[in-house]
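Backbone description:
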Amino acid sequence: MRRFLLLLAVAAGAAGTLVLSLLVSPWWWCAAGPLLALTVLGVWDLTQTRHSILRNYPLLGHLRFLMEALRPEMQQYFIERNYDGRPYDRDVRDIVYERAKYEEGRAAEEPFGTERDVYEQGYEFLVPSMRPVDPPERPPTVRVGGPDCARPYDMALLNISAMSFGALSAPAIRALNKGAALGGFAHDTGEGGLSEHHLAYGGDLVWEIGTGYFGCRTDDGGFDRDEFTEKAAREQVKCVSVKLSQGAKPGIGGVLPGSKVNAEIARVRDVPEGETVISPPYHREFDTPRQLVLFLAELRELTGGKPVGFKLCVGSRTQFLGVCKAILAEGIAPDFVIVDGAEGGTGAAPLEFADHLGMPLTEGLITVHNSLVGAGIRDRVRIGASGKVATGADIVKRLVQGADFTNAARAMMFAVGCIQAQRCHTNTCPVGVTTQDPRRARALDVTDKGVRVHHYQRATVRSATQIMAAMGVRDPRDLGPHQLVRRIAPHELQPYASLYDWLEPGQLTDRPPGTWARDWAAADPDRF
């Protein structure tokens, strides 16, 4: 209620001064006029659908837009006075907002060139061709589904990464699914279960199964095969992803505060209402790489042949090679692997975990790609990349590093209106994205934000295809590690083809090179 006190005070003042102007003196119109105008503006804020912050904070929300408008000028003011040594680097969030708001995506052009220090160690650039090509008329997709998959799925280059209902509000989930339906790309449910909000607009779904087995869970927290089979049969469910770990906090499960676990969420997740939900750190259905592979095969059979894979934040190369050995031993493979970078994550995580556990996305991708290639099974398994993917350049870099498709979470949250208030865990999100308070969630207009998600995804994929065309490539499969270069010293540049080992198909089973030989020998299909 406090959010509306300013509007109520202004409306009361307008009514009072209006009475005084009619009964006492016309001079009171000097106050009544502005107050009436502000009252009308506040009512408009409450009823418009374009800005969530104004729907939750009428009148007061305009101060935020004023500060956003002043930000570049104030940043330059401090730079010129040496109060900040860094050049102004445009926030990725602003790029997402621009692409989401406008149908043609107006965020691609800025005057006066790059604002990055191109001579800084670690600076990377993609290699343009002296003979660029025209981008494809239709954005490319990648077919997900190996030889054991009866119902493969054509995945877009950019999709919605895992975000659960419960962590996100019902309108936010609906807006994401509406955007996916409009744009023909996939929407990962997150581990919080398959809700009616995921199914609301017919967008394609990747149903994620986490360690808590939410939505297909027995009373004692185990995996319910009957409930899984029933829900996986839905036409909207195109793929199933088993989550082993996530980038922000590998090794520990997710946490949903009890204040967010209302009756609907409890029903969707098969958990008690009002109690904090903590996912276990590990799966009860498997303990070894071999058991993981067999579990994935069982899920594929229960779905009727839909693509099934798993997601992880890579830690040990030896352990992942154990999965590769299990695939070779059993003769069955997952249809995809989603690599989550340690730098990713939209939710709360212990600081030590976020900063110190797991491989960054670049190393994780290259590790998984080379492991599958070296084991001779890369052609059967598609690789997805998630972790701070927000722009067309991000997509192309991840494709160069070994991915077949990418997923975005944080950028998609920006597209539905997230302003990074960092109050997700308090249930008081000011724009209705991460709250289960219906009075706050009403601020997020599903129709408007669903279109924004569609606009953002389409503009970003278009940017990626334009970048590839400038590199002389129309098909992502033609990208290679020689087309991404990193500065490793002030006067030295190296392409990724030289910076990392790139294995040949089947090389691990024949004569593994260098440190790969040690890790391959240590890899055990029957022990993580």
